Amino acid sequence: MSADSQKRRAAAAALEHVTNGMTLGIGSGSTAKHLVELLGEKVRAGLTVLGIPTSEETRRLATEAGIDLVEPDEMTRIDLVIDGADEVDPDLNLIKGGGGAHLREKIIAAAGQRMIVIADKSKKVAQLGKFPLPVEIERFSWPLTVQAIRKALAENDLKSATLKLRPGARDAGGGVYLTDSNNYIADIQCTRIADPAALDAALRAIPGVIETGLFVGIADLAIFGTDRGVETLGA
Fold first, then answer.
1. Annotated binding-site ranges
2. What is the value of pTM for the model shown?
3. Which residues are catalytic (predicted)?
4. Which residues define the annotated binding site for substrate?
5. Is 105 an active-site residue?
6. pLDDT tens track for 209-227
7. Which of 4, 9, 152, 172 is most exposed, with minimal Cβ within 10 Å?
């Protein structure tokens, strides 16, 4: 079974946790695309939910699927957030942001009553770090922010980590990737992250760092699609 089929299997299993009347945070990326398609089928069959998309692409897909969307306000209760991940460790710490939407994803995930992560089995790892860690940074004086990030990495036993701005065609002026919030992303290749919470705190303390792709203490359940069905981690 392909990784894409495993992702769809995980998305279908996550939808078993969705009940009528819920407000859902809807994630971004290739796995979330399957979620939106399958959720749209349930909505057309009579399920009533409200969705809060975490990226402009997810908004577009959800609208096309016929899912009612809502802009959250101070009174909004997000019953459940379902999103993908690039890596998941045994403690349900995550690396997210391969698609560049981790700022919006983390805002919604932190506000949700519960978060379910969906992924193919390759995303289950013993330790975070093989997948590059994305850090969203302010474009103003970004070289100073990068300088501070390098210092923080060295102080967290990651002197050998490499960092580069994510390239992309969205910034016509320089070929640098722009997020939906018009910020840059610095991708950090760490190889291993011994203490995700400490690294997350150190990076977020830097002026100019808007958010990291480390999701620590946020996810409640991970569902991994496999060739034979699904595996779960958490409750």
1. 28-31, 83-86, 96-99, 123
2. 0.94
3. 105
4. 28-31, 83-86, 96-99, 123
5. yes
6. 999 999 999 999 999 999 9
7. 172
User: Which is the catalytic residue, given 57, 105, 136, 211?
Assistant: 105
Show the tokens assigned to 27.
Answer: 């994630």
pLDDT of residue 169: 59
Please list the residue range(s) of the chain that carry CATH number 3.40.50.1360.
Answer: 3-124+217-229
Question: Got the DSSP string for 85-125?
Answer: -SEE-TT--EE--TTS-HHHHHHHHHHBS-EEEEEEGGGB-
CATH number for the domain formed by residue range(s) 133-212 = 3.30.70.260
CA 8, 70, 109, 184 dihedral sign is positive
Query: CA of 196: how far to CAs of 91, 202, 207, in Å?
Result: 10, 10, 19
C-alpha to C-alpha distance for 89 and 174, rounded to whole angstroms: 35
Confidence of residue 71 (pLDDT cuts 50, 70, 90): very high
Numbered ranges of CATH 3.30.70.260 in the chain:
133-212
Condensed to tens digits (0 to 9), the pLDDT of residues 119-168 reads: 999 999 999 999 999 999 999 999 999 999 999 999 999 989 999 999 98
Per DSSP, what are the bridge partners of residue 167? 176
3-124+217-229: CATH topology:
Rossmann fold (3.40.50)
Q: Which residue has the tokens 């390098």?
A: 150
H-helix or E-strand containing 231?
Answer: strand 230-234
